[in-house]
């Protein structure tokens, strides 16, 4: 499954870095694409030097990544999800709500999944809700009450 905004965009990047799902970060290996296509919710790919059916079967289900430098720079006010994960989230009053655990795409807008004393789902809507993202300070400031929906 591709997590690029448009699933087929993952095909624009080469090389890919592959890793079995339960492996460590040290286990990424570079793979050059010969050809690839989106198939349903997955991707079918042929890699350079992988011409054997048994070798190809070993690559099935692996995680796919690319290097940061392969991505275009984010425009002003736009962020890659990876840059938001781990940031502290606080209200305008300075109350810490937790840290961004991950994000979800809902169709209407992305949602921050914030884990602290409890989990909170906060729409990533700049302006009305997300007031400031300070990557250097590692904080997202939101117009959100700490006791909202309690």
Structure commentary:
The chain is mainly beta. It folds into 2 domains: 64 residues, Beta Barrel (Elongation Factor Tu (Ef-tu), domain 3); 62 residues, PRC-barrel domain (SH3 type barrels, Roll), CATH 2.30.30. 7% of the residues lie in helices and 38% in strands. The chain contains 2 helices and 11 strands. It has a 6-stranded mixed β-sheet with strand order 9-8-7-6-11-10. Strands 2-1-5 form a 3-stranded antiparallel β-sheet, with no helix packed on it. The longest helix is centred in the middle third of the chain and has 7 residues. The radius of gyration is 19 Å and the shape is elongated. The two termini are 35 Å apart. The mean pLDDT is 91.
Number of domains: 2
Can you identify the CATH class of the largest domain?
Answer: Mainly Beta
DSSP summary, beta strand count: 11
- Structural class category: mainly beta
Quick structural overview:
The protein is mainly beta and 150 residues long. It has helices spanning 53-59, 81-84, and strands spanning 16-19, 29-31, 33-39, 42-47, 63-65, 88-91, 96-105, 110-115, 119-123, 130-134, 139-142.
Topology of helices and strands:
Elements: E1 16-19, E2 29-31, E3 33-39, E4 42-47, H1 53-59, E5 63-65, H2 81-84, E6 88-91, E7 96-105, E8 110-115, E9 119-123, E10 130-134, E11 139-142
Parallel strand pairs: 6-11
Antiparallel strand pairs: 1-2, 1-5, 3-4, 6-7, 7-8, 8-9, 10-11
Descriptive keywords:
150 residues; mainly beta; Elongation Factor Tu (Ef-tu), domain 3; SH3 type barrels; 3-stranded antiparallel β-sheet
């Amino acid at each position: 499954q591709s997590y690029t905004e448009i699933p087929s965009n993952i095909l624009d990047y080469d090389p890919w870095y592959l890793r079995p799902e339960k492996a460590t970060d040290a286990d990424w290996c570079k793979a050059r694409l010969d050809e690839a296509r989106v198939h349903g919710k997955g991707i079918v790919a042929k890699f350079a030097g992988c011409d054997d059916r048994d070798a190809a079967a070993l690559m099935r289900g692996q995680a796919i990544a690319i290097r940061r430098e392969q991505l275009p720079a984010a425009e002003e006010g736009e962020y890659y999800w990876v840059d938001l994960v781990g940031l502290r989230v606080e209200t305008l009053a300075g109350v810490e709500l937790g840290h961004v655990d991950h994000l979800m795409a809902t169709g209407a807008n992305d949602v921050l999944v914030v884990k602290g004393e409890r989990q909170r789902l906060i729409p990533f809507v700049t302006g009305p809700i997300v007031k400031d993202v300070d990557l250097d300070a590692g904080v997202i400031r939101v117009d959100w009450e700490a006791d909202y929906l309690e």
